[in-house]
Amino acid sequence: MARIFMNQVGFTPDSSKKAVLDFGGTEFQVLNSDGKSVYSGTVQHFGTDEISGEDVSVADFSDFKESGTFSISSNGASSTHFSICNNVYDKLMKDICKCFYYLRCGDALTKEYAGVYYHKPCHMTKATVYGEDTDPVDVTGGWHDAGDYGRYSTAGAVAVAHLLYGVRYFKNLLDVKFDIPKVKCDKGDLPDILAEVKVELDFLKKMQREDGSVWHKVTTFCHAPFLMPEDDKGELFLFHVSSLATADIAAVFALAYSIYKDYDAAYADSLLTASKKAYKWLKDNPDELLFFNAEGSNTGQYDEAEDISNRFWAAASLYEATGEKSYYEDILSQRDRLIDFDSKAQSKGYQGDVFTCLGWAEVAGLGSLSILLKGDDDELTRDIKKRFEGEADRLVANSGKNGFGLCMEAKDFIWGSNMELLKYLMILTVADAKIAHKDAYKEALQSGLDYLLGCNSMDVSYVTGNGEKAYKNPHLRPTAVDDIEEPWPGLVSGGPNVGLQDERAKEVPAGSAPMKCYLDHIDCYSLNEITIYWNSPLVFVMSGILA
Description:
By secondary structure, the chain is an alpha+beta fold. The chain has 15 helices and 16 strands. A hairpin with a 6-residue loop joins strand 6 and strand 7 (55-60).
């Protein structure tokens, strides 16, 4: 059956606009909501590419700027409907921000704001410090991390960082209103995004010990079965301190200080004090303290091979927040270690640049964002700019290798491939907004967003509630058992993954192209889970697109 793939949400009038066809043809039409042709163009054949396995053609209608609801037609095939208007992404932006509210843990949800997705208070008991004979600790609050009910310091810090760097780079994020409870501050009410982030920051503050170190995670000993959060009554455990978590918290608290000081001075000062306390622990404990699960425990491990990038980020964030030269000296020291680390990785075939890595495991790119914000006219800043521009150019080159204009390669379709894409889109966003304005960056950004919202060979939007064919069955405990047909909107799926690491995923036909290694099934934790740090980079990217 002939298919036309496209962004199912739509486009702003001045953006590039393309649809991808899995068949040949000569002409296409843009049809309005009455089925009348309002634009026609010539289909351009691309050919077969590795990541989709499709012999595709492209319908480019970028010069069509009329507002309204439309579809694409060619050779008897029709696309989904889409919109063109200046506020086409307003609902998407609200949804991807509010999903953090639905993921709140503790007693933070109310029926007024959660509506049908309300659930009773959960995980309100104190947590046992695993392996220690000490009093239980109150670590209530924060966000559930993913499809499970764990809460993890490193993952939480990175999700918060994506959101707060979004605020620092693109002030328009402060204007997004997504219907959550108001939080008072010195200036009245916090902007919604800062009110929501404060929920996670308050939880992360509880994860810091008196000596400044930070517990890696709080979870039950094993993942809960599929039940509502309030029915998860297993004993909570705080698992041991790691230098990874301590460095990430030092970094994100300093970043948060730089924003919240303009709204709530006392709260911001408490964050900076906690950041410096964590950093002092790192200085007093220079050897890496990594994390691995206790024997028999199967909750998220979030293990990393080293803590160099984490310490680099912490030093960079504190330098940007305070201007103290001692942190700058530490940046240079950790940078030298990172360069050596990156050189070894490159020798093993790794492509990319560690200083542009923006995920939960390699966080040096987050440190780079702080260095760019500091804006010093020095060799360090110039080097970071060069690295971001070089990586952005590499991504643009990749986008020319497939008919979808996607900046990914076959090797990028791993567990959480949509986050790989979103990290790349973050790089392109920063390069375009702050380093080198290039039309090619904007084109690659739009193509990446188009892919996420339906212009892919699965013909599915990977954001719930956004697009006619948005996926509906995330691997997420509440939506699986709440007896509500539709999941809450705004959740980003992990996406196609050639690894197919769960049993249900093995139903994907053998030999499928990377882009087709996907099933919209609740059992597919390796393909269709959600996480806070898969949503947070999309918020950053959309803030840049809408700036």
